[in-house]
Amino acid sequence: MAKQAPKTSIRKVLVSAVMLVTALCLSLSISISTYLDVKEQKQLIINKLDMIAEIIAFNAQITLIFEDRKTEEKRLKSFNKVELVKNIHIYDIDDVTNKPVFFTSYNASKTPPVPLKVNSVNELKVPKITADYIELIKPVVYEGKIEGYVYIRGGLERLNKYINTKIIVDIMLTAFVLVLVLLVARGIQKRIATPIEALSLLLQDVSKNHNYNARAERSNIEEINILATNLNLMLARTQNQLERHKADKQEIKQLNQSLEEKVNQRTIALREANQELLNTLERMHQYQNQIVENEKMASLGQMVAGVAHEVNTPIGLGVTGSTLLRDKLSDIKTAFEQKSLTSKQLERFIGDGIENLDLIYRNLNRAADLISSFKRVAVSQDLELSSDVNITNLLTNIITAMKADIAVKQPEIDIQCADGLTISSKAGPLQQVFEQLISNSLLHAFKGIENNSIDINISRSNNQLSIFYTDNGCGVPTSIRKRIFDPFVTTKRGEGGSGLGMHLVYNLVTQALNGNIALDEDYDNGTRFIISLPLVEIG
Hints:
Blueprint lengths: L9 H57 L2 H8 L8 E9 L6 E8 L20 E2 L3 E10 L2 E11 L1 H53 L12 H116 L5 H36 L8 E4 H11 L1 H7 L2 E5 L5 E4 L1 H19 L7 E9 L2 E8 L29 H12 L3 E4 L7 E8 L1 E2 L2
Parallel strand pairs: 7-9
Antiparallel strand pairs: 1-2, 1-5, 3-4, 4-5, 6-8, 8-13, 9-10, 10-12, 11-12
Helix pairs in contact: 1-2, 1-3, 4-5, 8-9
């Protein structure tokens, strides 16, 4: 629950604000004035001490040269009339060490002597001010040569007494001004608060008795007159609004009676519309199921067409080769029966036969490989058990086994994988995935044999293996990026591409390895596949 703000009144706020502002202004003004005054007084004292030190230094030139201590002591005693001067030292420059040494001194009455300042000559060239004293040192110079130093120490008793007196006067002046301001503020707040209280009483009467005929009286304050005028305007509008509301209430009562009849009629019409809508929805569900079945049949037809196209090509070539071989054999048989068979004819038949048999063998092998690929697409890989797989060794073995295929396009293969990365996974499906990806790059990505590269970046994080497979080839055409994992989608139809490689990779990753694979469609420098595999780390 929100904490309520403490209550106050205009009287208290006005008086407090005036007193606070006045007190702050007075305090700031007096503080600045006192600071500047004290600063000026200190500067006057410093200037006076500096002047006295200059006079002493001038007078001490001859006494230092002739080492006349008595004359200098007699001269220094004349400063007992100067209340400001407390202590004076005169230092001579030793001819051997060239350092200041004590020559003579003066101490005012009831003032204890101070320690020698021969080691503070450089520090006290600038006046040093403490709470009770000011100290400074002036050199005694004769014809450009320093003959000694004058140390003078002045008291600040009169300055402190002056400051205390000024503070008392300032406090008394502040108290007088605050009392005067308090009296003026009370008169102002009484003049302002009285008409505001009258407006408050008027609003209380309106709130309790609903007396909207009441009106606020004018006062001698312009702002309160504006408030009273606006309040009277609000009361007049409220009164008019209440009268209109009373009339509207009567009209609404009449409308409600006729509305009930319309509602009943609309309810009947809505019930009929709802029934028609339900019938329409039922028909839509039937159409939707029919569309799904049509899509399934269309997908099945596309797959069957792809299978037929891929298998019919090698089988057709095999049939052509066998038919041609049969015709050649029939010609040989006829020539043999007619005893017209020549050695050249037999030699040509043997050569053509071997060529046709090779054609038949290659195409039957091609058909067998296609059937094997179809089976691998369809058959589940779940029967293989997981084992410990060293990723680096697996990739090395794959590249070694595919050395002949890789040599055709000569790509530079860069494997970035931590040494000794061993995971628990299915080695067979994982090997097939890498083999299919490399084969796909060799067949589709690289046009020539120069500047080809394949990068395989493998890293682990918690219980996930991340694989980034990248090549710098021509990339995947935009038209098939959304369908790259569908069966029989290829850009090399009739050139060695069956369209089943990436579909096989997708099935192996998602079904056998329970992972995810995606094509990075924003990658512009070739092709990049991102594979994520869940695993149990063992190393």
